[in-house]
Amino acid sequence: QVQLQESGPGLVNPSQTLSLTCTVSGGSINDGAYWWTWIRQFPGKGLEWLGYIYYSGTAFYNPSLRSRLAMSIDTSNNQFSLMVRSVTAADTAMYHCARAFYKNGVVVISFEIWGQGTMVTVSS
Amino acid sequence: QSALTQPASMSGSPGQSITISCTGTNIDLGRYNLVTWYQQFPGKVPKVIIYEDVQRPSGVSDRFSASKSGNTASLTISGLQAEDEADYYCCTYGGSAIFWIFGGGTKLTVL
After folding, report:
1. How are strands ordered across the β-sheet holding A3-7?
2. Is B92 exposed, middle or buried (0-12, 13-18, 19+ CB in 10 A)?
3. A47: chain B residues, CB-CB within 8 Å
4. Are A108 and B104 in contact (CB < 8 Å)?
5. Which residues of A are less than 8 Å from B101 in CB distance?
6. Beta strand A11-12 pairing with A118-122
7. CB-CB: which of B34, B46, B104 is closest to A109?
8. Is A37 in contact with A99 (CB distance < 8 Å)?
9. Pick from A15, A4, A9, A33: nearest CA to A89
10. Nearest chain A Cα distance for residue B38, angstroms
């Protein structure tokens, strides 16, 4: 079955750029039935949707974070990535990649498969 | 954008029914039929137990049901079992100005 695995640095200095990659196995990232998503979970448990990207490269971002986010997709390696610029301690969280089901090519329904997540701490 | 509002914690005894509420606004939860409920155990990732407001994925116990009225969605767990002790999150689409927002989560304790 499809599995997602995040990779990236566990520690990032404040004001630097965080870069994360999600590798998809057991299925193709080229599948038009899905959007490839980043969600983070804060130490206090709260969840925040960061954005998602389609195999075509079209991406949508959380409006409150849009100026600091960038996503990309590498269909040849079945990977997609997230960059978060100018990080602060408030960006400390578990970062999950997830697959979102795109029903009938019209609407995203839910985040149905999640990676285990990678913990990112922002600290000097 | 504001998160959806859920009670921080709830508890119930085995065999009881419990309902967790999730309140949004008429521009997010009340506008779209896209409420998802997630169940999360400690150290595990969230799992979809309800999607499109009331739909239950195959493999999810029929003890889990959901409804929506106006700007409030509800998740009901009937015949509460010890294995239901987990965190529950609601989530909805809020249009292109908001996209996706989550509730703060409800910690369910089975007494």
Report:
1. A3-7, A18-25, A79-84, A69-74
2. buried
3. 46, 89, 91, 102, 105
4. no
5. 49
6. parallel
7. B34
8. yes
9. A15
10. 9
Nearest to A47 among B96, B97, B102 (CB): B102
Reference B101, options A43, A114, A48; nearest CA is A48
Distance from B4 to chain A by nearest Cα, in Å? 11
Q: In this structure, are residues A116 and A84 in contact, taking their beta carbons and an 8 Å threshold?
A: no
Q: Are B110 and B13 in contact (CB under 8 A)?
A: yes
Question: Which residues from chain B sit within 8 angstroms of residue A4, using beta carbons?
Answer: none
Triad B94, B98, B104: Cα angle to 5°:
75
Q: Per-residue confidence of chain A (124 residues) as pLDDT tens digits?
A: 999 999 999 999 999 999 999 999 999 999 999 999 999 999 988 999 999 999 999 999 999 999 999 999 999 999 999 999 999 999 999 999 999 999 988 889 999 999 999 999 999 9
Neighboring chain A residues of B45 at a CB cutoff of 8 Å: 96, 114-117
Residues in chain B: 111
